[in-house]
Design brief:
Chain lengths: 239, 820
Amino acid sequence: MIEVSNLQKEFLNGQESTQVLKGVNLNIEEGEFIAIMGPSGSGKSTLLQLLGGLDVPTKGEIEIDHTPIHAMKEKERTVFRRKNMGFVFQNYQLLPNLTVEENIAFPLHADGKLTKENIEWIHELTRSVGLEGLNDKRVNLLSGGQQQRVAIARALANHPTVLLADEPTGNLDRARAEEILVLLSTFHRKNKQTIVMVTHDIFAAGFADRIILFKDGIIDQVISREDSDYAKYLANFMA
Amino acid sequence: MLSIWRISWRNMTQNKKRLFFTLLAMVLGTAFVTSMLIADKTTDDVFDYYEQMYVANADYWVLSDDYTFPEDLISPILNEPIVSNSLLALDKQAFFELADDRSLSQRAVRITGVSDQSSPLLTLPVIEGKLDNEGLIVPEPVAELLGKGVGDTIQFTGMGEAKISAIVEYTQLLASPSNWERAESTSFRVLAPLSLLREWTGKQDKISYMRFQVEGDGTELFNTFQQNFQGTSTYIEPVVADDLQSNDIGGLYTFFYLIAGLSIFISGFIVFNMIYTSVIERKKEFAIMKSLGYTQSSVSKLVLIEMTLLAFIGTAIGVPLGIWLGDLFMKALLGVFEFDMVYTMNWEMPSLIGVLIGLLFPIVFSLFPIYYAGKTSILLTMKMADRTTSTSKRHYVKAFFGVVLLLLGTIDHPVSYAAIIAGAILLFPYLLKGLSALMKPVFVTFYKYPGTLASRNVTRQLNRNGNTAAILAIGIAVILLLSAVVESAPRGIDNDIRSTYGGNMRVKSEAPWLAEDMEKILSYSGVTNVEPLAEATPITWETIEGQMRQFSVLAVRENGPSLYTHGQEKDIMNRLRQNPSVLLGERAFAEWGGTIGESIVLNTPNGKKSFEVIGVGKTSHYAGYVAFMDALVMNDVFGWANSFDLLLSVDKEPYDTIRDQLWTDFSSHLSKVETVEDEIQSTTSAISGMNELLFVMLVLVVGLASIGTANTLLMNTLERVSELGTMRALGFTKRQVRNMILAEGLLIGLTGILGGLATGILLIYLTSKSQLMDGFLSFQLPYSDMLLAIVAGVFLSLVAAWISSKSASKMDIQTLLKEG
Ligand SMILES: Nc1ncnc2c1ncn2[C@@H]1O[C@H](COP(=O)(O)OP(=O)(O)O)[C@@H](O)[C@H]1O
Ligand SMILES: [Mg+2]
């Protein structure tokens, strides 16, 4: 599904250059739920942005569904993104003067394809994230938890191949965070939705099939649910 | 202290594009005002210079109501010990003898013979040659037209020939046409030695006038000779520097100052918008500063210092630019006149005023934001509720006031113009809202979803965007009003001239017209009426404030040609015939400064005489700088008998045949043949030049307003970078983002243009209906300016939008997302 090989990213800031990703290799299967953990500044968000085609790598390859996105032109990437990618951000990134429904429908609008079935699908999404009745409410009047549900619904509006979430629960309290995680894992289970989630929170990571530990621009360790020490590892972490 | 300046500098330069636009607006505003001040003062100087040249050192002159008079009449004056200098002059009409085929009217030239070409009573700006009292002195355009230089010979038909000894720059005494077309109705002027002219003409002891200078106070001498000359054909007048008869430039500057004021207002608004937004953006920073112990005034001071820094930079660039613009403007303005005038820029004082204005206006316009910055509440700001939601109740109040002001604007009063503009500003947010709803379908067709978003986005910062559109609109509206005035002026002038010219042709002679001359002219085919016209000139008088002035007095008769219009014409004619009274033209009345019923004192050929001013008439003669008197009163009381002018009525328009006939029949004394068309042509040509100048002004004002649009859009864009980032992340292409911002700019621009057109039309309509303005303007729309406003407005708004859309789409997505 997602094949990443020798992925490198270097940022140039004037004279200075920072090597943020130093050769990442990663394969993600269709329908997998991946959590990426690691210290702050280790390059998790950068990796996610590259996976989502928001930026291009300095070196290395990314194939999504056998499509090499690292070689795409800006415009192609944008079109690819709106057809295949869903994003959830820590600070929700909703469009404040649009309603709940308009926010969710945005990726379809961008594509200029808001058909009748699509509208039905948007309504269904709204219901499934538990926001029915709030369709026409302006999003800046919602609570944080509600806003993140809108973001999740929006990320799914275009039936994305992959849902990328960067610390989706970072701004929420434990109860609200759990609701969001339940929501994500529901979509994961029911729709076989592939999810890559960056998180600081081991509790959140616990919802994933695999946990990738990131350190200093490379993958340090990978722990699968199937691994014998997965439970032990989690327990260690929790303690 | 040093560090606070450095902090200010850093704050300012944080947002380079915004800084650039704000500075640009300040620079242009300052430059405009400076250039207008310079142009005004320089023009004053130019006219002063020519007036002084005309007056030279002369204090008095002796003239005659006959064309010439015997030289011995003035010998008593020359014998007076206090007379230190004198200059005798004789005018004679003649014709150039030319190789090429030119008509008599084109060849007509007035030769003035002077007793001393290098007299201190004569100022001649020599370009080439010498004032040797032997040869001719010709103005440069004449020399050029004739293709002659110093040393070449000029022949005069039937008189003689002489060499050119000097070529001089423009001076009123030698004002000549500079092309053959204009020569048709204006004669050339040259100077010759008096002795030579007398030789040619045989007028051995005759002169036309004598100018002289006195040492010390000449009042007594003046009074004596005013007495002595009573009952003779000669009379004495002081030499007065007053060129209001020949130029009417004062009104022009009202126009340009209006435009300069407008540009300061627009720049000021841009400054306000920028500093206000910047203060709001930094509210948190100010709150933190205050919580760390900064006082309200020290926070205000920080912003004030920023503004002062900006004002200094703006002035440092704006004033020099203004000096340059002023020079450019003077060239354009004086190019409108017929003569090649020279000018020296008067820039010192205007620049100083420009500096003051340049430093002060940005600060004045940012006083509120500066105060607001100091007021920042620590607690409220740290919690920071969303500020953009203003209550709908306040909206209604605003709309209500806007409508009330617009309605008040329909009252016929000068202040109503301000009311309309203020009302329009208040209503603009609603116009913007309405228009964005109205335009949505169009935008959606062109831009798809970005169009929908754009029409919604402009209503988010409704006040800011509305104000931006309003500024563009006011610029357009005011210029449209000015254009309407300028465009309808020629029609009005055409009308005025035709209705007060007194016929279709005016014929001037050096000798008084005789009855048989008039009969002969009446027999020409096409001539239906011939009327004599007596014009006494120059006649000096005093304004209420005691300033010496001079103008012409024209004689009017019952059933004679109508030279002015007045509400009660019959009544006025009757009253003019009773006690000695005059009717003043509008400009003469204004310059005089008295009220109807008061008396004006004139230095008449019969001495100092008082005349009751019984009314003000509209007239095209000397653009209203003139007085009218009954012909009999003029003869008996005033002391002017002869008519050197004839007014002809011509029923078809064989002007040229009549002109040629006149020149052939009366070549010995005819001096000028002018048609009503010539007069209209020469008066309106200056105005059409003005119209072109206004075209340029319109584009400049729209351009300045568009800087405001660019600034506003830039602020709108910067405020939502994270939103734009989200849109890009969710699949909006760069082009979609750009289209959205372009559509927003277009909406603001369109609102400004449409609102401006509407406001402009309203202003024009109210002006045309105004009793106060009394038919000053007919309701006629300046279509070409409107079209230009639309084209320039749309184009420049798009450019403005394009600049900010470019900077939005250039940022990469991660930066955009992070900025949130
Ligand atoms: N656009 C950029 N330009 C320069 N440096 C960047 C940019 N984006 C991220 N970085 C740097 O890359 C490193 C990794 O950032 P990030 O991927 O956001 O880490 P994480 O999400 O793991 O906290 C940080 O040191 C950050 O400063
Ligand atoms: Mg991160």
